[in-house]
From TrEMBL:
Homology family: Belongs to the PrpD family.
Highest taxon, organism lineage: Bacteria
Transmembrane residue ranges: none
Pfam families according to UniProt: MmgE_PrpD_C, MmgE_PrpD_N
InterPro entries: MmgE/PrpD_sf, MmgE/PrpD_sf_1, MmgE/PrpD_sf_2, MmgE_PrpD, MmgE_PrpD_C, MmgE_PrpD_N
Record domain MmgE/PrpD C-terminal: where: 289-470
UniProt xrefs under PANTHER family: 2-METHYLCITRATE DEHYDRATASE, 2-METHYLCITRATE DEHYDRATASE-RELATED
Positions of the MmgE/PrpD N-terminal domain: 33-266
The protein's name: 2-methylcitrate dehydratase
């Protein structure tokens, strides 16, 4: 790997393009090997993530934000283009609209992959726009794989090197750059074109983190879809010869100087050398439970503690000692009263570790719908337990969260339960059971089981197997074969649900 120092430069420096981060990202993307030469483990993991995305997308088809995004996309039918999850087979819309609908479906349940380092990310959000453009432009499964591996490489590098959260900038700013790079790799575009697309994408998708603060709305699902749509449009303009603000990262009125650490900002972004294997996707991990990633280990810990805790009406207090990020983002350290509100939105509840811990302790399981149902959140005994749960930052857990060794990095915490007689029960868990370093890491069978579970009753068994067969042969698919990556569903039921929605402009 090569460590690139990124800092602010005054315009008078006339920083050469080849020395700008956007160019270096683009060069890594356009230097990505052909699919046959990619790291075999990285390719296998890319297939896993295609399966994972389809699982959560299908499970969300009759959720309102997904139906709205789908309705907007289907209002733009096209002779060529890309498919939409839940739509009639063969129906096509322009790729940017397919990315919008499918990206929202993938993100809605907060149930696909994640990577946590200096910042946060859901790198699987790169796949919907890449798949849409692959279909639209007549690319193969091998081309799509090349794009996915490249997008993950760029996304992970940015998340490791540049923290957005400290300055309350939403993490989709890194996503849009990664998607533009993935599209460039997939389409074999010149480095100059990808460089311009990265600049445009970052400039147009930098937003505040209010989308994940306070009363969290459906925009949390739309935000990455918007970034994917914007990245496609940026690539289209760049291919037509249009430029971008530059230097987008290093400029004196640019991203680092005014959005992040300021004029004295300096960051280190590590990128692979020319010819070095692209393996960053292997550092990322998926979710076994439908909740914010930092709650994954907490859910597993709660399930383990349930037998030890005994009757929960005896709990006087439950304190989770955890990292700065967990405490401040999904814990009581966020100072969001909404995280303790029984009438809060699903999006808010899946960013409330006190709520999640309470329900997991009571139910002994976690479900992507039932655990968030309004009547579930309003149970008096749940509310009583919920309000006894708090988080505190523990410097040791913060240190472990940022450990440079992925095998030692920890995203969990230590729970201390005090009962009404003063006795104390303690337990801790560093990573979720499904994490690569966990008790039962997800492998291909975990992804396929998740797919079958989430699509049960929506996708017939034969159609489930047809999708899994196609995904497993992704490297060999031709352009028509990419349509098989959209599992066949009962479109009549989907259409009936969509008909209940109010009309918009389209």
């Amino acid at each position: 790997m090569i460590d690139h120092q990124v800092r602010v430069h005054p315009s008078a420096d006339r920083l050469p393009r080849e020395e700008q981060l956007a160019w270096k990202l683009a060069a890594v993307a356009t230097g990505t090997q052909e699919a046959a030469d990619l790291d075999a483990a990285a390719v296998a993991m890319a297939v896993n993530r295609v399966i994972d995305n389809a699982s959560v997308a299908v499970a969300s088809l009759r959720r309102r934000p997904v139906a709205v995004a789908r309705a907007q996309a289907l209002a733009h039918p096209a002779r060529s283009g890309a498919g939409v999850f839940g739509a009639e087979p063969g129906l096509r819309v322009p790729p940017e609209w397919a990315a919008w609908a499918n990206g929202t479906a993938v993100r809605e349940l907060d149930f696909h992959d994640t990577y946590l380092a200096a910042d946060y990310s859901h790198p699987g959000d790169n796949i919907p726009p890449l798949l849409a453009v692959a279909q639209h432009t007549g690319r193969s499964g091998a081309d799509l794989l090349r794009g996915i591996v490249a997008a993950y490489e760029i996304h992970v590098a940015l998340v490791k090197g540049i923290c957005l959260h400290t300055h309350r900038i939403d993490h989709v700013a890194h996503l849009s750059a990664a998607t533009a790079c993935g599209l460039g790799a997939m389409l074999r575009l010149p480095t100059e074109t990808v460089y311009q697309a990265v600049g445009q994408a970052v400039h147009t998708t930098t937003a505040t983190r209010q989308s994940r603060k306070g009363e969290i709305s459906s925009w949390k699902a739309f935000a990455p879809a918007f970034a994917g749509k914007a990245a496609i449009e940026a690539v289209d303009r760049a291919m037509r010869g249009e430029g971008a603000p530059a230097p987008i990262y290093e400029g004196e009125d640019g991203f680092l100087a005014w959005m992040l650490d300021g004029p004295k900002a300096s960051y280190t972004v590590s990128l692979p050398e020319p010819g070095e294997a692209r393996r960053a996707i292997l550092d990322t991990y998926t979710k076994e439970h439908s909740a914010e990633y930092q709650a994954q280990a907490v859910i597993d810990l709660a399930l383990r503690l349930r037998a030890k805790a005994g009757p929960l009406d005896r709990v006087r207090s439950l304190v989770l000692h955890t990292s700065h990020h967990t405490h401040r983002v999904i814990g009581s350290g966020a100072n969001d009263p909404q995280k303790y509100d029984p009438a809060a939105s699903r999006e808010t509840l899946d960013h409330s570790v006190p709520y999640i811990f309470a329900v997991a302790l009571e139910d002994g399981t976690w479900h992507h719908e039932r655990s968030y149902a309004p009547d579930r959140a309003r149970r008096p005994e749940t509310v009583d337990l919920w309000k006894k749960i708090s988080t505190v930052e523990d410097p040791e857990w913060t240190r472990r969260y940022h450990d440079p060794d992925p095998a030692r990095r920890a995203f969990g915490g230590r729970a201390v339960i005090t009962l009404d007689d003063g006795s104390v029960i303690e337990d801790e868990l560093a990573v979720a059971d499904a994490h690569p370093a966990g008790a039962r890491p997800f492998a291909r069978d975990g992804y396929t089981a998740k797919f079958r579970t989430l699509t049960e009753g929506i996708v017939e068994p034969a159609a489930q197997e047809a999708f899994l067969d196609a995904a497993g042969l992704l490297a060999e698919l031709d352009t028509p074969g990419l349509a098989d990556l959209f599992p066949a569903v009962d479109t009549d039921a989907i259409t009936a649900y969509d008909a209940q929605l109010p009309e918009g402009l389209f």
